[in-house]
Amino acid sequence: MCSRSLFFLLLLLVLAVSPFVPAQTKRRVFIPGQRAIVIDERLSALRAQPDVKAGLDQRLRRGRAVGILRAATTRSGARFLRVAISRNKRGWVLAEAVARLGNAADAEKLMKLIEETEDEFTKARLARLFADEFRATALAPKALLLLGAIAEKVAERLTRDAKRRVGDEEPGRGLGKRDYFLNFNGLDRYNRIGVTFDYDEASDRIVYDGAAYRELLRRYPKSEEAKAARERAEKIKSRL
Questions:
Q1: Which of 46, 56, 94, 105 is surrounded by the most beta carbons within 10 Å?
Q2: 174-176-177 Cα angle (round to 5)
Q3: 3 state DSSP class of 45
């Protein structure tokens, strides 16, 4: 056997016994400290020192995972947390900007922020964040019920916006209004946070698909919110 053939034979053998590792596999980044998430971007400036006038490193986005290392209180009474945002990167952030996972007091803090928030998208995003990160708390069913109610309200505005874009003419090229309505770019940012919609042909409008209500019933069937979720889910199902 020639050396070239022997080389290819050995190469095939190595490939055959080597474990396959998908190119898209993501490794979870280790972050030291007590796990928490950023909930309020208005206060999430990562600073070099525990002081609102200290040098700004970066703004932490809502939903960013951090590790709490220690706390400090300034002379003015402001409470800061020393947090890790990666294995080697540290900084100080106002305590009100983050919530500790599984902590009942922080769960209440996040729920209060959701209820006080007026912007519909921010409200929906915070409710989704709560449902994902605080699912073991007593307020998780309430977060899902709120998410569904927000999405139903948003659907009304999205319908008005989509109609202005699509117009009253019937689409051509083998497509229907459903194809155009559900591809309306106003839905994009909601789709990215897991809030999805459907099209009700009878009323010619975008409607919420009820996913948060179904999730609530699946996870928390004995909760106080389950009855309202069941009624809303059945109502949505009857018109789709």
A1: 46
A2: 155
A3: strand
151: confidence class by pLDDT, cuts 50, 70, 90: very high
| The two three-digit tokens of residue 128, written as one number | 């989704």
The H-assigned helical ranges of the chain are: 3-17, 104-116, 120-133, 140-166, 177-181, 188-192, 211-219, 226-239
Q: Which domains does the chain have, with CATH numbers?
A: 34-100 (2.30.30.40), 112-239 (no CATH)
Contacts from 30-33 at CB under 8 Å and sequence distance 24+? 30/87, 31/65, 31/66, 31/67, 31/84, 31/85, 31/86, 31/87, 32/67, 32/69, 32/84, 32/87, 33/66, 33/67, 33/68, 33/69, 33/83, 33/84
CA angle 148, 151, 157 (to 5 degrees): 155
Whole-structure pTM value: 0.80
Phi, psi of 123 (to 5 degrees): -60, -45
For residue 25, the SS3 value is coil
Within 10 A of 3 (CB to CB), how many other CB atoms are there?
6
Name the strand (E) or helix (H) holding 73: strand 65-73
